[in-house]
Amino acid sequence: MSLINKMLQDLDARRSEVAGNDALGMQIRAVPQRRGIHPAWWVCLALAIVSAGLAGWMLLRPAPVAATSPAVAGVPLRLDVRLEPPPADQAAAVPVRGAETPPSVPGASAASAPDAVVPVVQAPAPATPAPAVAPRAAPPEPARPLPIEPVVEPRNPTVSQSPQSVAAPWAEQTGAAPVATGAKQVKELTPPQRAENEYRKALGLLQQGKGTDAAIMLEQSLNLDPHHVGARQALISILLDAARRDEALRLAREGLARDPSQAGLAMIAARIQVERGELQPAVETLEHSLSHASEQPDYLAFLAALQQRAERHKQAVELYVKALQRSPQNGIWWMGMAISLQADQRKAEAAEAFRRAKASGALSPELQAFVDGRLAQLR
């Protein structure tokens, strides 16, 4: 078109040479030069924009998932899959863009999510240089595989260990040696526990009337545990029934020597001593354990009666008063205190004590007659 315009301009310049009345010369004019853009350039511009957009999409599209692809360009892939989520500061760098993956990956899907997280693929660098792309953040370092520790099953002593290997540490901690019976372990009883078992067996024999066998079991119990009070008292009772008072007294004294707080043993020993005519030793036996039996009215009344026999009436009255404070309806104790009061020449108090004893209703006919006689003397 420009060539044609040039030619027409030359003709127009030579128009003056043509006759003015020439009709052909008047009709031929040069086309004026156009100042606008030709439409073809608009078409080219649109094609360029579309091509640039397509190229940009190809460069910035997400990386295809290579899970189903066996290899890239014939090179085997090595996958390091993260076993734990990436740190917060690397969360934005996890997605892998398409520029980092060779373009010729068979089976890749173009519809992948833009920011999908895919496993990090480490492959040898391609021979040809990668196209230049815009500067971007460096990809995160591949996570090291998490070491998997072997699972250690708990040791089961009853299955994987022998009873002897289990018994050693157990015996060191508890102080008692276990006895292995097959796969089970039976804890050996301590001497006090064995003594208690022997004592219970002896009580069963006593209920059956087998006193001799029961005495043997009780002796075995005391040999295992000399502090077993029940076994000692039961054996003393069997010995007293068999009129073996010396052996019974010996056992009672041995028990008191080990534990003076056993008031029951003190009363048994004092009673045996009284029967043997040993009044003062009996009083001493009871006084030795009095601090442990100051709240027991029977113990106090028994010692008061022995003091009365020993002509110690003031001490007897004091002990009777303490006993009657804890059991004021005992007529026998009122009568005993009245006797000591009368012996101490405290007649008015003695008469009142005799009346309290008679009013208790706990005296036998013989004792009531004795009280009446004493009241008559005091009148």
UniProtKB/TrEMBL annotation:
TPR repeat feature ranges: 297-330
Positions of the UniProt region annotated as Disordered: 90-110
SUPFAM superfamilies the record matches: TPR-like
InterPro entries noted in UniProt: CellSynth/LPSAsmb/PSIAsmb, TPR-like_helical_dom_sf, TPR_rpt
Residues that span the membrane, as ranges: 39-60
Protein keywords: Membrane, Repeat, TPR repeat, Transmembrane, Transmembrane helix
Top-level taxon in the UniProt lineage: Bacteria
PROSITE patterns xref list: TPR
Protein name: MSHA biogenesis protein MshN
Organism: Noviherbaspirillum aridicola
Taxonomy of the source species: Bacteria, Pseudomonadati, Pseudomonadota, Betaproteobacteria, Burkholderiales
